Each structure stands twice: as C-alpha cells, then as structure tokens.
Amino acid sequence: MAYSARTRAIFENQINTLKDGGILKIERYIHSVQDAEIEVEFPPGAPLKKVINICANNYLGLSSHPAVVKAAHEGLDARGYGMSSVRFICGTQDIHKELEEKVSKFLGTEDTILFPSCMDANAGVFEAILTEEDVMISDRLVHASLIDGIRLCKAMTDSFKHSDMKHLEEKLILHADKRIKLVITDGVYSMDGDTAKLDEMVALCEKYDAMILVDESHASGFIGKTGRGTHEKYGVMGKIDLITTTFGKGLGGASGGCVSGRKELVEMCRQKARPYLFSNTIAPPVVAGVISVLDTLSKTTERRDKLEKNANWWRQGLLDAGFILQPGDTPIVPVMLFDAKLSQDFAIDLFNEGVYAIGFFFPVVPQGKARIRTQISAAHEMHHLEKALAAFIKVGKKYDILGKSKKEIMEMYGA
Amino acid sequence: MDEIRDVVLEYVINEYMEDQDEELTYDTALISGGFVDSFSMVSLKRFLETRYKISLPDNRATPEAFDSVNKITELVMEFLAAKE
What we know:
By secondary structure, chain A is of the alpha/beta class. In chain A, 43% of the residues lie in helices and 16% in strands. In chain A, helix 5 packs parallel to helix 6 (144-151). Chain B has a single domain (2-13, 29-83), classed as Non-ribosomal Peptide Synthetase Peptidyl Carrier Protein, Chain A (Orthogonal Bundle). The relative contact order of chain B is 0.19. Classes of the chains: A alpha/beta (415), B mainly alpha (84).
C-alpha cells in the first residue's frame, strides 16, 4: 500500500498541529437556503439552531431570491445541466456570450471573458498578458487569489504599502524602464472593508503610462450610485483596464467569475489563460441566474440602496454602543477585538445568542488585529439588525469592552 | 561595513514597516518573520544595485540571503570586494 502508516502519520501530525494551535477550520452545516436567517447544525450532530447570518457575502440578498431561482430553473430546462467541454471545443452556448455582453455593459468595459471562478480569473489573467519584460506592482493587502496569480506569472513583482499613493508613485518611477507596468488592487478590501482610491490610482497610472487591474469581488452590484462598483464610486468608469469579479457574492452568490476590460487583454485571456483553456466554464443554470441578476440590477437600484441604508444603520449602531470599528463605508463592518482568543469566544457567545458571525485572527489578518467581520445584506430586515445589535451589546458587556480603547482591551485580554 | 548596515536598516524600515512602534534589529528575520513580503524584494535588490553600483544575480538575491539586515550587508560586502 502506497499510503503507508508512516505517510499517514505525516499528515496526521500536520492536522494535529493546526488543531493544537486552535486554527483548524471547521465547517458549520446549514440546513436551509442562504438568507438573512439560516438553520445551522453546529457542532456536528447538535440540534438545528435558527440564527441571523451576518457573515455571508450575500450582499444583495439574491442567493435564494425567488426570481433568481426561477431564472436558474428555466436555464436548466432550456440549456441543460452542464457542457462536458471547455469553452473552445464545444462548451460555449449563446447564453455564455449573452452573459459576457451583459457584464461588459454593466461594468462599462469593452469586453468580458467568463471563468469558473474569480479565483481562476485571477490565477489566469497575469500569465496570459504579461512577460518577463513587465512588472506587477500590487497593494500589500490584495486578496490571496491575486497573490497566487502573480506568483504564476514570469513578470517582475513589486508591492506598495496598503493604499499609500506616495509609495505607489515611487514604485512607478522605479520601474519606468519596464515594457508594461500593471498596478494591482482590490476595489473593496474584504478584511477591512475600505476601498481603493481608484481616482488617485488612475491619475498615477495615466501619469506614468501604467495599466491598472482591480478585483471587484466585494464591490460588484452594490458599490457606487448604481452598483457598478468601486470605479463608479470614484468616477473612473471606462478608465480601468482590467476588472476581475465574481458571481459568487453580491451578483447571485452561486459561482463563476470573469475578467472584463480592454478588448485586446480579454482576447489574450481567451487565447492563453489556463483556467479558461483547461476547465469547463460556468454551468448553464448559473449563467441564466446571473443574467437575471444583471437584468434586475440594471433596472433598479432598490436592493443596493437598501443595503447601503442597512449598513449605515449597523455601523452607527455599533459605534454608538462603544465598539471599535475599522473605518469605512461599505457593507463590510469589522468589529475590532484585537486578541485572537477573545474573537473566538465572542463569536461563540454570539452564536448562543442567535447571531452567526466568525472571528478572524492571524494569519488571516495581521497579528494583534483580531476581529469579528460582519457583513450586512439587503436581505436583512430591521428586526434582524436590531436583534443582532442587541446580541453584540450583550456579549460586549459580558467582556466589558464597550467604550474601551484598543490599549485597554489588550491589557484585559492580550497575551 | 557599519555604514552599509545602517543604510540597509534605514531603507528596510522606511520601505516595509507599517507600524513605526515595531522594533527592527540587524538580525530580525525579515522575510521568514513576515516583515518583508517576497514580492517587494525586487525593490530592495534594485536599491542595493543602484546605491552600491553592483549587480546581484538572481541566484544570489534569494529570500534566504535577504532575510536580515546583517545577511544583506554581507552580500553587499562580498560583491563590493569582488568589484575591487
């Protein structure tokens, strides 16, 4: 047997190390559709508990929306379950092209190519368009999938301090001799909920003849006045060379992603991006669901407006109660607890109060910056938010952290 | 040598330290310790090459060789000596 006892022990030891360090990831089983309230089995075997969900990327509340579910059913009936082929052999349907055109229109770009996920889009885009003669200059807090994509590309790498425009400018000057300079950023940073200063970044890119790529996964559908994204918020629609985004968050929540932008760059992805060439694209029912999402969002801003109102109320409520938040104006509202163990204990107490949230700590966030990341949805009604806020205040009082400074919290709970 | 060490230390502090309270010594593990992300090692390499008019081949400018101010200084000294 190739998988010998010795080999098994190697992996058992690694898993035990994670367990002993308290960083083993554990799934909670949800027995309902994804929504503002969900039924959760946790720990495994425990009776089902109905809780308010404030940790989903279900920003627009479309994951189980009847209109989206209906559209997916119709897509399933009309175009089947799967394609059993990659795009360029016999895996492209009319609805894939329709979705690509609708995404381009929605984002204000020249062209779009679908990927099985945004992780795949980010893994494939850099290698498809850049060579050893080029440089990629990324914000130091970009998403892990961008980091993986950068690693797969032969171009030179460099980085700038998070959101530090002076530092970015220094890097653009340093790499003036490169054939192509590509600046890489998230639109909305998922752990802190802050936005990239795209107006300043675009101005710098224009000044130093650089291109810009923005990952809009936590922005598409709800950031900006009509929900087009961070580029709309900062008034630079049409000036972003590459946008990558997902359909697995605000835009329906199922799966799939894309690269959208300058038509030559999209064509390069169609010719060379490996996740596009070597895996099936998005399944027909999901394509049909996303088309219906984009049709709805193009007609009305009702859901993103409700989301904005909910998020503002939530942020203000937590601030008034005396919690320390990461500053920002997105539906991602991180409640800072600083200490890793406190963030875990706090999340367990919230769950017992009927609120589902997750504590994040190093290495997902920097050392000493543990937090509960809350994510608000248009699916939340005021009674959900009121109940969740009451739970936060109750648990906050238990740990005596309301109105306390970072220093005071660290003195009480820090190692 | 001391002068090179201090120049490198100052550069590393300005380039990589987000939190000014954090203390950095000549022996702090920069890359394996999580202070310097490997993507931006290229800046450090380019800085050293320009400042000291040396050329560091990729097989010597490794994360291991750049892992502390002292190690970087040794590398620079070696290439400066070879130049003379």
